[in-house]
Design brief:
By secondary structure, this protein is mostly helical. The chain has two domains: about 70 residues; about 40 residues, no CATH class. The protein has three helices and two strands; from the N terminus they run E-E-H-H-H. It has a two-stranded antiparallel sheet. The protein is rod-shaped, with a radius of gyration of 39 Å. The protein starts with a strand and ends with a helix.
Length: about 110
């Protein structure tokens, strides 16, 4: 079997470090290390991709719910019209200065 050489500038524990301490590795050991590393990377990236797709789906769901909320019919216009019919019985209140002051005073008393 062929051998690979792994060099470490800091040396190997228990050995005196020269400029570069070299540790011979068999090709089979090197392939096991390489395969384990690549499998770990593949698993890590697969997990990241899964989390990304879940996050995108979650935010897409929120966006769709918000669009549905904005599109649903409401009764705001009808409520404003009803309010105007009930409370704006006095036409041209701003023109009638005394009536305006009276209504302002009543409003201030209510608050």
């Amino acid at each position: 079997m062929s051998e690979a050489v792994l060099c470490s500038p800091g040396g190997v524990a228990g050995l005196k470090a020269s400029a570069c301490t070299c540790v011979p590795l068999r090709a089979q050991e090197w392939h096991v290390i390489e395969r384990t590393y690549l499998e770990g990377c593949a698993l890590g990236f697969a997990n990241i991709a899964e989390q990304h797709s879940l996050a995108v789906a979650h935010f897409d769901n929120i966006k769709q719910q918000f669009k549905a909320l904005l599109a649903r019919p409401d009764k705001r216009v009808a409520l404003v019209t009803q309010f105007q019919k009930v409370w704006l019985v006095y036409g041209g209140v701003r023109v009638q200065d005394g009536l305006y002051r009276c209504m302002h005073t009543r409003t201030m008393q209510c608050t």
